[in-house]
């Protein structure tokens, strides 16, 4: 792709845990189903594996007692047979049930797990806590649930849930507070009882459970898909108002009069276009961009002033700077009774935000929080420190060689402070392509506007799309504009860059290099670091925190089991699935027929053979990650680049895993050759894998070079370990 206007990524595409592009890919997963299904059939035939026989439980899916209310939600409601009143319900929130709904075997397996497993807390592992559990139901242990003639003993369910139920001390229904609690736990390092005890919030939570899993992705499901019903997640609606925030992907939302937009990033405005016929509320800059870039009509937008309350439908609303991208704001809602709700949108907490007169400690009732980096692993320097570091680097380079092109990566809107600071320090102009020129001119920054030029040879500070900051693409950029530079410096400011130079003032690392081009990564984030988030919350002391990013991901790891043939990946995964009740994805079921045939014939797979297969598996990983749902994936993942493709969907080593920290664990099982050979020969008659391939597998095998290199990949030497011991080692690491 040549560097040009289209190469600008929107910020969410590149900087969030779950990118919108990845979601688009996620949404197309269903189109692979047929191919996947035929692969599965084939593998099944080859393996002659025996699947559980169908049971009458298959039929219950047709019963009115079970409501598949949404694609991903299954509610089982216990009704009092005498009064017809619903006493309680247990909800599962799992996509697997939905996507496999037509495949009876899977549905049956799920439900029998649900009802008959005696092991502890089977559902907690795979789904959410029950949402509406009334205290009195805990004592009614003799009740039964009728499902098409099956009497399911409530005792069994209660015994499975007893731990969770005993923790449900409130006499009224409570929401599944897993997420909020985990935030408190993260921030204060101790569990704090959620104060989500008012009726409004409870209703929001229970509504959520009738809808999709909140944990979906960054900000709810996006993109268009006919088979995916999109409901506005509860955390986008402000309880007690007719307001929603950043919710344009859900059509006309029932009961909503005012559609607030926090900033102009596509994961927030997604769904907004010239046909929008409701009323959007935002600040001047964001409204400018909505009009010019999306064609939203002025009559459908209300521009609100910053830093002062304006009454909207009976509620006072103040817009406060969010310190994210230009035009980003937080919303402070003040109710007639004085109650305050703060919605941060995406924000970077900083001391100047805390000094705002409208933000006082102990006054915020609920904060809707940008939890992008709410994990203590995410520590990075302040924006000022990083900018200073970038300015110093550029100045040094230009001093050494004045014929150096400085190419700074940006999003459509975002990271402006970096190139602006560089241009100010060098007192020069900034070259931008035409579209970016128009956008930057709408940001109401006079100095920035004055510096912009669309003439490439007027300055050596050039702005390029973030995706174009690679040596070959920067070279293409220079060639395209016939620039006569002897050296190119790429500046890539992103929160995902881990600074290798720890300590000191040099907050950058070399990301990639060619003969005359060096790309430097800068940990410049427009989201709060963990410490900033913590300081912000500690200062405001809100009564309640509602996370808006990566919701539902807490403790939902994805476990990948790799290694050469016969190391025990499948055996381990199957056992782990039984113990944890997680979904299990067997990579062999995703190999195309051609790959299976080759392996059966003893012909080793090539990189080209493995690439589409690894990408398909990556989609699965993405899907589970987006849903915040655990799963186990087996995949040989023999070398680093295969693992890179599996985890990141690309072989580009510069792309860091955009999986949230803590979300996945990769285990490489190893065994001596003679043990492997023996196993392969023993199972030869029942498996397609040709033992002759063992040596090529061992040759291709590349274990992580170091902990730093692949921090989430663990090598387990399985020599002499029983299957249970392998499982135990894994469970210790994943703490499940
Ligand atoms: N810990 C173990 N101890 C002894 N035998 C084991 C152990 N784990 C697995 N096996 C046996 O080794 C063989 C290979 O195991 P398995 O099929 O799980 O490996 P795999 O890594 O999934 O292989 P492949 O990649 O070829 O599908 C099987 O016959 C299995 O029963
Ligand atoms: O990357 C590969 O070469 C393959 O994934 C193999 O590892 C086989 O599929 C597996 O070993 C057979 O089960």
TrEMBL record:
InterPro entries assigned: DRMBL (IPR011084), P-loop_NTPase (IPR027417), RibonucZ/Hydroxyglut_hydro (IPR036866), Therm_gnt_kin (IPR006001)
Transferase keyword on record: yes
One Pfam family recorded for the sequence: DRMBL
Pathway: Carbohydrate acid metabolism; D-gluconate degradation
Entry keyword Nucleus: yes
Keywords: ATP-binding, DNA damage, DNA repair, Kinase, Nucleotide-binding, Nucleus, Transferase
EC number: 2.7.1.12
CDD domains linked: GntK, SNM1A-1C-like_MBL-fold
Region of interest: Disordered: 1-56, 194-224
Location in or out of the cell: Nucleus
GO BP: carbohydrate metabolic process; double-strand break repair via nonhomologous end joining; interstrand cross-link repair
Gene3D superfamilies, sorted: 3.40.50.12650, P-loop containing nucleotide triphosphate hydrolases, Ribonuclease Z/Hydroxyacylglutathione hydrolase-like
Top-tier EC class: transferase
Chief subcellular location: nucleus
GO molecular-function term, one example from the UniProt record: gluconokinase activity
Enzymatic reactions: D-gluconate + ATP = 6-phospho-D-gluconate + ADP + H(+)
Chain ranges of the DNA repair metallo-beta-lactamase domain: 448-552
PANTHER family hit by this protein: DNA CROSS-LINK REPAIR 1A PROTEIN, DNA CROSS-LINK REPAIR PROTEIN PSO2/SNM1-RELATED
Name listed for the protein in its UniProt record: DNA cross-link repair 1A protein
Source organism (scientific name): Adineta ricciae
